[in-house]
Design brief:
By secondary structure, this protein is α/β, with parallel strands linked by helices. It has eleven helices and 17 strands. It has one domain: Metal-dependent hydrolases (TIM Barrel, Alpha-Beta Barrel). The strands form four sheets. Strands 3-2-6-15-16-17 form a six-stranded mixed sheet. A five-stranded parallel sheet has the order 10-11-12-13-14. Helix 1 runs parallel beside helix 10, helix 4 crosses helix 5 and helix 5 runs parallel beside helix 6. It is globular, with a radius of gyration of 20 Å. Bound molecules: zinc ion (ZN).
């Protein structure tokens, strides 16, 4: 297939109009005027719930959903059941992922069973193909053990991704700020280590990250589309569907995060895709934490009005740089003007848990191509 007139999203912004050719089977030529051709987005943070919770997601449904959302490469967290805390489990997941339509990589757990008690074998996990270590979903480990964990992961050539939230302080902003302060201190004492902060959500974290980066520490950070675009007021509108950890914060936090992303203090956008079945998202008190991420992320990001070069850095180049991954033959075609209604029943994901349900959004992926194969949107007509 040849695409005519698509604008190309590059690191230096847009060069429009232009003509691009991507090989994709025997599809007829397509006039792609008004569309944006982007290298596939990469999501550093997703929960694919496999093994253990097929009612929420599987590798297959998660990968299909990611493709629909414009992600051609995603990184699955280790808090499955059982958790990915051994080389054997990681090898098995990698074997299964070979059949998926997009690239899926896996992190290994940092501690056995994610309990924060004893470290996993970083070198064995690296040999089995882990791209990082993380206990995401929890932050149970003490600073001393984190320091040793950073040391060993660094020696094995793996970044450590943390869910910065001191469990004894609950979910308040201070729980995040103090966890980040502690983790940066641990990082300062470890050579070769690379620490990545997941889903930074609060203004108070930004200054700490900027200072640590300024001091030359190997620190990177992500923010989610929902923390950039939504605030705690959403809870009054969407109830349990807006329940997420870390929680949605204030408008001032969202603005500070957006500025930090533009300034490069926060490196990337990652979805924290956390699918759940409807039954556990009904009741305010007992609802599970987490939001569906993949299929609404791109529209949410485009709605922020970020410069295209920031979008490229946050969604294409940054995630790959953090994990040392190459951009392969992965493309998405975006219609930045397409308006659509969020109908979770039509998601490819099993998780319909989004506070954006019923909203009109602008911006959609019309095609996803990996290795010359259309993995999403082959039937979509482009005007
Ligand atoms: Zn987390």
């Amino acid at each position: 297939m040849r695409l005519h007139h698509a604008r190309l999203l590059r690191s230096n912004g847009l060069s429009a109009p232009d003509t691009f050719y991507i090989a994709a089977g025997d599809e007829p030529d397509r006039d792609a005027r008004g569309l944006v051709l982007s290298p596939g987005w990469m999501d550093l943070h997703a929960h694919l719930r496999d093994p253990g919770a097929p009612q929420k997601e599987t590798l297959e449904t998660g990968a299909r959903s990611a493709a629909a959302g414009g992600f051609t490469h995603v990184v699955a967290m280790a808090n499955t059941d059982p958790p990915t805390d051994s080389a054997g489990r990681l090898t098995e997941l990698r074997r299964r992922s070979e059949a998926l339509p997009i690239k899926v990589d896996f992190v290994g757990a940092l501690t056995k069973g994610l309990t924060g008690d004893s470290l996993t074998d970083a070198r064995a996990l690296k040999s089995a193909g882990a791209v990082a270590l993380s206990d995401d979903g929890r932050h149970a480990l003490e600073a001393g053990l984190l320091e040793v964990g950073l040391w060993r992961a660094g020696g094995a050539g793996l970044p450590v991704l943390i869910h910065p939230q001191l469990e004894r302080l609950g979910t308040e902003p201070a729980a995040e700020v103090e966890a980040i302060r502690e983790a940066i201190e641990a990082l300062r004492r470890t050579a070769d280590a690379h620490l990545h902060l997941q889903h930074v959500s609060t203004q108070g974290s930004i200054g700490l990250i900027a200072a640590a980066k300024g001091a030359g520490l190997r620190l990177t950070a992500e923010v989610t589309p929902h923390h950039l675009a939504l605030t705690a007021a959403e809870l009054r509108i969407s109830g349990p569907l807006a329940k997420v950890n870390p929680p949605l914060r204030t408008a001032a936090d969202a603005i500070a995060l957006r500025d930090a992303l533009i300034d490069g203090i926060v490196d990337v956008i990652a979805t924290d895709h956390a699918p759940h079945e409807d039954a556990v998202k009904h009741d305010e008190e007992t609802a599970a934490y987490g939001l569906h991420g993949f299929e609404t992320a791109l529209a949410t990001v485009l709605t922020l009005g970020l410069p295209w070069e920031v979008v490229h850095r946050a969604c294409v180049a940054g995630p790959r740089r953090i994990l040392g991954q190459e951009l392969l033959d992965e493309w998405i075609l975006i219609d930045p003007d397409q308006e659509w209604l969020v109908e979770p029943e039509s998601f490819y994901s099993r998780g319909h848990n989004t506070p954006l349900k019923g909203r009109r959004m602008r911006g959609r992926v019309v095609m996803t191509v990996v290795g010359g194969k259309v993995v999403h949107g082959a039937e979509v007509a482009v005007a």
